[in-house]
Amino acid sequence: MKRIILSLLIAIGAIAARGADGDLFPYPVPPADMSTLQERCDYLVSHFWDRADIKSAMSKTEKLNSTFGDWIGFMPYASADTVYSAIGRLMHSVRKSGPQALHIARLAENWVYSDTSQYRSEDIFYHFAKAAADNRKIGGADRARFERAARIIDNTRQGGRMRHLTWQTPDGRKATLDTIRTQVILVFFNEHDCDDCSLARVRLSADHNINTLISSGLLTVLCIEPGEPSTEWHVAAAGQPANWVKGACDDADEWFDIKSTPAFYLLDARHKVLAKGYNTDGIIRALAAVRANTGL
Length: 296
What we know:
Strand content: 5-15%
Distance between the termini: 39 Å
Number of helices: 13
Order of helices and strands: HHHHHHHHEEEHHEHEHEEH
Largest sheet: 5 strands, mixed
Shape: elongated
Number of strands: 7
């Protein structure tokens, strides 16, 4: 561990040295008496843009992107409060210019939230997205896109409470998560005509641990079609396991990140998100562990 920390400190020093003269501006240099990794990264994250001319930097797209990436690279080793405050100050500094605020938010999306991001962090991106969503200088369509991203992160953040999920049952009733009271809830987004989803349904429905948890009243499998309750879905739902709760959610893409299906969220009784982003194998293993812990 000490060797890893030393390597990180050396790497941080190298980045700071590279930016000493700065392609865009001189990078901050932590005081010599800051010896811990977090102290130094807190300083770098907090003071990174102190000597930046943002307006001038906007015209140097590639250099700004690289510089922004250097800043993001310090964040995993800094305290959360420092990171969020620094993001707030940067977004506040460009709040009067819609194009500048939008450009910074897009940089953040590319660095921490896209499928190819080097530093994947929805918590970091949330603060950029929320600032962009609240900025009336940003055009309506772009602002709406960031508003949606912030809303999805708010609703599905790991460790947070899932507050919004409504669906229509096969018999036409509206239902919400508030009606589900079991100790564990598996929210399973899947499409009736998706081959991978079909395989996931077969594997989950045949799993002994999952069926034991359901029959004992500890688990609800909530099988949700992301979209309108079509005739085809009604036919498919009739053939799905009788011990699952089935529904169609026409606004799923406004509240959940469902770029592909199947998609899983594992919740506790208070709808706290325990796990997400798992594939079918991961969910089966997680629920096997749940059963083992119950002693069933």
